[in-house]
Amino acid sequence: MTWSEMQPLLSDACSQTFTMVLWSTVIAVVAGLPLGILLVLTDRGGLLQNVLANKVIGQIVNIGRSMPFIILMVALMTFTRWVTGTTIGTTAAIVPLAIGGIPFFARLVETAVREVDQGLVEAVQSMGGNTWTIVRKVLVPEALPSLIASTTTTIIALIGYSAMAGTVGGGGLGDLAVRYGYQRFETELMWITVAILAVVISLIQFAGDFAARSLYRRGARSGPAPKLRLLKAKEPAAAEVGKVA
């Protein structure tokens, strides 16, 4: 197979992989972020302590993480058909990719949020901050470098999942490698596909590490929880208003 024949195949496969990973990442982050935070808040000693809810959510997340992706795809075929109208193709592959990515990202979020200094949480509580204020101004900002790293890890995992999705009709680089590289013995095309995946994953990892380090250094220079200092500044002002009144 010549390069002119490979080029359109590689272009279409890269586009399909990009679409699958992009949308599944967006869904995984949007659903996994609050789920991971909820696991922390409902745990023993948490701001919304509810042991039963925590165990139920944790068990659901554990089941989702423990199931191999290829089995998850088969198990979700009925649901995928109900959502997209088909079980093959790029659009159909997004459904199991997103559902597989949500519990994966949720556990990473839980780990990142648990690393936040509890002294900051207690300080905001002492100033009358509610749960939403603590989540918005302390937990998420302080855990942001770790959340960026978690997102990077999730994207890389979803790229691997998308390659597996290609083996059962999901399209993308995995489908190209199997259909042409393996079944038609186009070894050169298969290794080009492997090289593309390796380069893409390396670039994503580099970009994610760079962003996380930049945020960490910025936070270190500005000190812990800049917004916490704003809350402290507002507290004396509110006290003065109360005295005048």
Can you walk through the features of this model?
This protein is mostly helical and 245 residues long. Helix content is 84%, strand content 0%. The protein contains ten helices and no strands. The chain has helices spanning 3-41, 51-66, 69-75, 77-84, 90-114, 118-126, 131-166, 172-182, 187-222, 226-244. The longest helix has 39 residues, at 3-41.
Distance between the termini: 84 Å
Query: Beta-sheet strand percentage?
Result: under 5%
Spatial extent as radius of gyration = 23 Å
E-strand count: 0
Shape: elongated
Q: What oligomeric arrangement do these chains adopt? A: single chain
Largest sheet: none
Give the averaged pLDDT, no decimals.
Answer: 84
- In terms of structural class, how would the helical and strand content be classed? mainly alpha
Q: Give, in order, the helices and strands.
A: HHHHHHHHHH
Q: Work out the helix count.
A: 10
Instruction: Point out poorly predicted stretches.
Output: 237-245
